[in-house]
Automatic annotation (TrEMBL):
Organism placement in taxonomy: Eukaryota, Viridiplantae, Streptophyta, Embryophyta, Tracheophyta
Key word Metal-binding present: no
SUPFAM superfamilies xref list: ACT-like
One Gene Ontology MF term: amino acid binding
The protein's name in its UniProt record: ACT domain-containing protein ACR
Amino acid sequence: MGTLHDDVVIIRPSEKEGDPSVITVNCPDKTGLGSDLCRILLFFGLSIVRGDVSTDGKWCYIVFWVVCKPATRWELLKKRLVQACPSCSSASGISYYRSELQSPKPPDVFLIKLCCVDRKGLLHDVTQVLSSLELNIQKVKVSTTPDGTVVDLFFITDTRELLHTKNRQEETYKALEDVMQDAMISFNIEKVGPEITACCQASPYLPSAITDDIFNLEMSNDLPSVSLTSNNVCVTMDNSLSPAHTLVQIVCQDHKGLLYDIMRTLKDYNIQISYGRFYIKQGRKCEIDLFIMQSDGKKIVDPSKQTALSSRLKMELLQPLRVTVVSRGPDTELLVANPVELSSKGRPLVFYDITLALKMLNTCIFSAEIGRHMIRDREWEVYRILLDEGASSSIPRRKVEEEVWKRLMGWE
């Protein structure tokens, strides 16, 4: 079975405002494909309101109904979706994800050093430019000097793999200059080797004081993730309706990246979806039906495995990220933890949403740092944002937590 390259991804933009656009993917199957596609849609700011997926074990057919932004770059989106799909020559059999076998060449890392005059919302404006250029922030260090000068260090990779060229660097400089205008003092971009990135990496383990702040109680009612959403996440499993598959039914409230959170969890468990449906009802209530099987091609019959998967899905849907604001002596620190897939991919645009929420709160960022850390036998991307002392003191801690959480969940 084969298909023309142009038919791998077909996008039909909505003809009427308010109606969803339709994205169809028709390609060879692999475990984790749904997660990879949902992550791309999330990166482009699309909300999935309905989805259908089916596969015969070799070939899959996926349809997403999405609500898009007016400025969605459809051709670029199609290109990224096609790149995520296996080639037609791989349709001889399904490929299951094995982290130890996944060893692609790591992308080149570049350092962008910006020196500029500080102002409210500056960091978000820079982050927005980098995102629009498809420059992925791997790590950032931001510091403010007493005279109001900001030094930003962005360690980034380029989705287009062109940042080593003069034209791409000039494009980046021009885009940043346009948004920063007279605030820019100096700009430099250079490729850095592994020895530089290694020196700038944070320790893989965080102090217990920080992990206790983010993970002190898995389901604490004090956490904004629970107080702002419904606790009623229902996950049920049934082996009686299919001779070859386990049916997983999920009922929960919608949030940004919901389908991605489900798909990345199943990908980490190396579980294949043979058929699935996802749709949002009135009141943002989501219903998901998934017929799944393990990597050995069998249904999940072990009660302990069922319980582990069910508990993990519930946790990921209630708290796909962790958000808290803590006092560090006279300082106020915002902490956000984002789980990393076994394939080393993290949730996209988290830093973008954090900086946007703080910009909306008219709160300045004194310093910021992103690092990956092992917490409870799992890798997390941790964002540590030190808020400006003057601005943060006038905004209640709870208000900052809730506004950041709502922005991350798409409830703004």
